[in-house]
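Contributing new records

If you add data, match the layout below exactly. Sequence lines come first and carry their own label; structure lines follow with theirs. Keep one chain per record. Anything else will be rejected by the validation script.
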Amino acid sequence: MTGKAVSFVAKSGTGKTTLLEKVIALLKGRGYRVGVIKHDAHRFEIDHPGKDSHRLTAAGADTMVITSSEKLALVKTHGASPDLEELIRTYFGDVEIVLTEGFRKSRLPKIEVHRKERSAALLCRGGNHDPNLLAVASDEPLSLDVPVFDLNDPDAIVDFLVETFLAPAT
């Protein structure tokens, strides 16, 4: 796969999005261009009834792009979830790192987010040993074969990402 990508994985309600918000802001503050892909196991609707873009998609457009001077949004219908690595190759050539939320079954390197009140078991260790696990961000000390970071220390996680995947930004 081209590009540098890391997936943040955890059970729902563990705090993946909250941690990612902090990690993204810190990476941006260090001068990196960051891309994000969020996995949604449910049907989501980014376009809303009554908007012209929704009307065009509802009329049958297979691909619809809405653009302005600041943003671009793509709505593309498909029969199955696209391959994660293909998404990264196709849409993220302009960033230095891609962070994904979810995609626990992917072959991407992973950082598991762990909160003891949510679950005693890890997704990527124990009964299910994922060889792509790079680190764990936890609210409790754990003895593992990968680095364990304090869930409330996003700076340490960003330092790890920079050391592992990125050259210092200029």
